[in-house]
Amino acid sequence: MPVRRPVPEILGVLLDNARVHGRGTVRLTARDLGESVAFDVTDEGAVDGEAARLFDRGHTGAGPGSGIGLSLARDLAVSLGGRLSVTGRRPATFTLLVPVRQEEAGPAGGG
User: Fold this and answer.
1) Residue 32 in 3-state DSSP?
2) CA 82/CA 101 separation, integer angstroms
3) Residue range 19-57, pLDDT digits in tens
4) Which residues contact 78 (CB under 8 A, 6 or more apart)?
5) pLDDT per residue as tens digits for the range 77-111
6) Which of 2, 29, 82, 108 is deepest in the core (most CB within 10 A)?
7) 55-65 burial string, b = 16+ CB within 10 Å, else e?
8) What are phi and psi of 12, to 5 degrees?
9) Residue 47: CA atoms inside 13 Å, Cβ hemisphere, count?
10) Backbone angles phi, psi at 86, to 5 degrees
11) What Å distances lie between residue 51 and 6, 61, 70, 77, 89, CA to CA?
């Protein structure tokens, strides 16, 4: 499966966010779900408050940042037909779900 260009950008935002705002070890895992791939970025911190607000443009929470990264990452995920969400509060986990586009195979055999 070729990596689609926005995926590394989205994962970069999530990893940087975990490094700046999280605690402890940062983990990136990938899960094959058949028709999609899930990328989980987890750190040892916690998500407090309303998780959906983290994706609002301009929302910075605690610490440094401009409040653009997670909003942009979510928009990129949607542009791929996927989604980005908070899937764990303690430990903090963000999941990027990306559909896998299978290329249609031509007819078997030939003539």
Assistant:
1) strand
2) 11
3) 988 888 999 999 999 999 999 999 998 888 788 888 888
4) 84
5) 999 999 999 999 999 999 999 998 755 444 554 44
6) 82
7) beeebeeeeee
8) -60, -40
9) 20
10) -85, 120
11) 23, 11, 11, 17, 8
Cα 7 → chain centroid: 8
Report field, pTM of the whole predicted structure over 0.90: no
Per-residue confidence (pLDDT) for residue 111, from 0 to 100: 47
Distance CA 96, CA 110 (A): 40
Give the whole-number percent of the chain exceeding pLDDT 70: 78
- Bond preceding residue 91 cis, omega within 30 of 0: yes
